[in-house]
Amino acid sequence: MSADASVSNSPANEEALLANGWKKRSLGGFIDCAGPLWTRKEDTAWAYAILADDRHLNPAGMVHGGLLETLMDHALSAIAWEASGRLKCVTLQLDAHFLAPATKGMLIEARGSVVHRTASMLFMQGLLSVDGQPVMSAQALMKIVAA
What we know:
seven-stranded antiparallel β-sheet; globular; disordered N terminus
């Protein structure tokens, strides 16, 4: 779950992200207001990221916790959507644990997985990281919504 060396410890830039396989996405809805969102296919899973800029900061100059939770929720929802055969999923619960601050210029990466699945629920875990260092861990419960 480590970041690319080309964006480590220094402010990331869009050219470096593109060179390392990241793609900027416009999906519509709230994530476009929070982003822009970056995605990258890694082996059999997807990674999601936001490149922090001034819009993402709180008054203390750190990335706002609400943005971190938004990125985590989006990533886990997208992973649940894929795992459920692309059925709509909604978040019932998201337990987030803030581990370290993120600042402007950092690429905040999100990855996650399904821990357990029932016919209508997915139990998820996720991690946000910057340069391979954990920023937030989370567990979530996703409900598969009937088509």
